[in-house]
Amino acid sequence: MIIGAIEAGGTKFVCGIGNENGEILDRISFPTETPERTTQRAAEYFKDKGIEALGVGSFGPLDLDKNSPTYGHVTTTPKPGWNHYDLLGHLKRELNVPTGFDTDVNAAAFGEARWGAAKGLDSCLYYTVGTGIGVGVYAGGQLVHGLVHPEGGHVPMRRHPDDKFEGACPYHGDCLEGMAAGPAIAKRWGQGGDSLPEDHPAWEIEAHYLAEAITGAVLLLSPKKVILGGGVMHQSQLFPLIRGKVARNLNGYVASSALDDLETYIVPPALGDNAGLAGSLALGIEALRG
Ligand SMILES: [Zn+2]
């Protein structure tokens, strides 16, 4: 079985082919340009690969309602040219195979549930913390959609008592993304996270906001695993800080042995930076199975 997968990001597209075991057999990536040029490049990559289905995990917001006339469209993105673009429709017309479509973070959650850190579990959360923050939700063996799809990167939180930063989200100011995504770190400290030392106070504050959001999500959704990926989470010193704060926030209230050892509960993606592409592959396999 050869399945196509696209991790459609706002800055780059990753295209690959893989099989039913989640093995990625080939991949390319290229910068996200105009929608026409970018989808054309993706379609050209797949043309001679003999794919039986295609899975697409995309940046959003997206229309995921299969009964909607604009199913498969990117909707209200501020990204120039992509507003209301029929991403899935263009790919379908070019490649003419069954397709699966979801948010990039739902795809990553699905990949981790199938082959990664949440393998064998029927629920998990996947956070990506990078230029933005997104949250994929897998619950009861299904990816969660609703009015649209979860937008857990924009939840409000309690402020860190020492933090006077006003926030960087154009919609909400001090939501999670506005306080803890890469650009917020850079704006608060006048330099990017990459150039801040491991013991800089930035990481204490960063861990505070992520722990606030994760605590709320654990209480609301009761996920069996919380997976934290994305460029900012390459700062591995964040993991123990976040686990400590989540434990303090929960304060023993949620009675589950899974929470006895947060080192195995709040974890990096087992698929590493492949989680998104592998998840898109899993979406493609689902599409083929109908
Ligand atoms: Zn926001």
UniProtKB/TrEMBL annotation:
InterPro entries: ATPase_NBD (IPR043129), Carb_Metab_Reg_Kinase/Isom (IPR051804), ROK (IPR000600), ROK_cs (IPR049874)
Pfam family, any one: ROK
Keyword Magnesium: yes
Enzyme class label: transferase
Catalytic reactions of this protein: D-fructose + ATP = D-fructose 6-phosphate + ADP + H(+)
EC number(s) stated in the UniProt entry for this protein: 2.7.1.4
Record keywords: Magnesium, Metal-binding, Zinc
Signal sequence coordinates: none
Coiled-coil features, chain-numbered ranges: none
Cofactor dependency: Mg(2+)
Family annotation (PANTHER family): FRUCTOKINASE (PTHR42742:SF3), TRANSCRIPTIONAL REPRESSOR MPRA (PTHR42742)
Family: Belongs to the ROK (NagC/XylR) family.
Protein's recorded name: fructokinase
Species of the source: Saccharibacillus alkalitolerans
